[in-house]
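Quick one: sequence plus S-adenosylmethionine SMILES, need structure tokens.
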Amino acid sequence: MKPMKRGDQVWQTGEVVRRYLEGVRGGIPLAAEQFEIVLRLVRAARPMVGRFLDLGCGDGALGRVLAAAYPAAEGVLLDFSEPMLEAAREALAVGGRHRFVRADYGDRGWVDAVRDGAPFDVVVSGYSIHHQPDARKREIYGEILGLLEPGGLFLNLEHVASRSGWGEAVYDEYFTDSLYAHHVRQGGVKSRSEIAEAYVHRADKEANILAPVEDQCAWLRELGYERVDCFFKTFELALFGGCRGG
Ligand SMILES: C[S@@+](CC[C@H](N)C(=O)[O-])C[C@H]1O[C@@H](n2cnc3c(N)ncnc32)[C@H](O)[C@@H]1O
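Reply:
Sure thing.
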């Protein structure tokens, strides 16, 4: 029997990467506000950031925010998609301070691939870990805790589950409106229904394994994280996390 292809591996194809970076990332609603809240939390937890990790970095959307705010910091940007890492290298090509690591965090071995950059003041992850089954998400949160400095902060900016089909439908409309507005801003000529169609049938949708943010915050507390909270949420977009005890 042919081994089953994991859904998340669509991220290793140039076409899915291009569609996300050109058509979706800039259309995520309230992205600037999300980055601002990330920075506020980082500032409050760690006055100095020497080392950070961006897990499932894509083109380094979150890592770039940290690199700009903390120019002396050394970043580790990890992804299992070569086209994404290529985009991250291009976007962060400054002074060779950052390290780009190709690894699959679905496999516990990823920790060894970043250990020489640890312990980290901050670990961020953006819209990525939701591709893992819930049991593995929880393990990854534990592995991240082990890589943090005492007092260090983990923030997951994540696609989380709605509590009802009704909430999910409202979110889908909201997200599609935002993608369409992004498309129009870029000078695109597709109709809203074409954008909606492409969103519903996107190749990476199958790879989503969404979990409610309340459950994920509970896992963090059980694992020993402190100051755990959901710091931002609009429909299925949430920023949550916590600190390692000092
Ligand atoms: C939706 S993109 C988000 C990229 C970026 N963090 C952002 O905020 O725009 C999801 C990213 O997670 C990466 N990813 C998904 N599963 C992964 C895994 N098991 N190991 C490493 N990277 C993974 C994908 O390659 C992709 O770059």
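The pocket of S-adenosylmethionine is lined by residues 8, 11, 20, 25, 56-58, 61-62, 79-81, 84, 104-106, 126-128, 131 (CB under 6 Å). The chain has two domains: 1-46+151-210+220-246, 64-109.
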